Amino acid sequence: MRTVDDLADVRTGDKGDTLILAVFPRTDEHYEVLSRELTADNVATHFAPLVTGDVRRTDMPLVSGLVFELPGVLGGGVTGSPVLDGHGKCLSYHLLSMTVGEQI
Predict the structure, then answer these.
(1) Distance of CA 40 to the CA centre of its chain
(2) C-alpha pair distances (Å), 26 with each of 10, 47, 63
(3) How far apart are CA 31 and CA 54, in angstroms?
(4) Average pLDDT, the chain
């Protein structure tokens, strides 16, 4: 069983209570696999029940990246959330733990 961590690196950002995850596959082949596997619905399911709206995915083929916006995950954002990680930096590891179905 493979995880996103086997195929890519992930960086995080935030805007209000929206978590932003940028996925950068390590090879062109990994980009093709993750483009198929990391749908907005699959990522929303992986982060449920924290997501409060539609997950948006933006493909960035010129840099082989996928960017996801997950509304509500940060529970109020940096100034409104009582959690220690209001920026959601540790949540990149949560996405890295997501299994991908295809064998390479």
Answers:
(1) 9
(2) 11, 23, 11
(3) 23
(4) 89
Q: What is the pLDDT of residue 103?
A: 54
Asked if residues 50 and 72 have their Cβ atoms less than 8 Å apart, the reply is: yes
Give me the phi and psi of 101, to 5 degrees please: -80, -20
Instruction: Using CB atoms within 10 Å of the CB of residue 99, give its burial: 0 to 12 exposed, 13 to 18 middle, 19+ buried.
Output: exposed
Bridge partners for 3 per DSSP: 99
- 8, 63 Cβ separation under 8 angstroms: no
Q: If 0-12 CB within 10 Å is exposed, 13-18 middle and 19+ buried, where does residue 66 land?
A: buried
How do residues 21-62 score in pLDDT, each as one tens digit?
999 999 999 999 999 999 999 999 999 999 999 999 999 999
Which residues on neighbouring strands pair with residue 100, listed in sequence order?
2
Q: Please, are residues 70 and 58 in contact by the beta-carbon 8 Å criterion?
A: no
Is residue 43 within 8 Å of 96, Cβ to Cβ? no
Structural tokens at position 66? 């996928």
Polymer length of the chain: 104
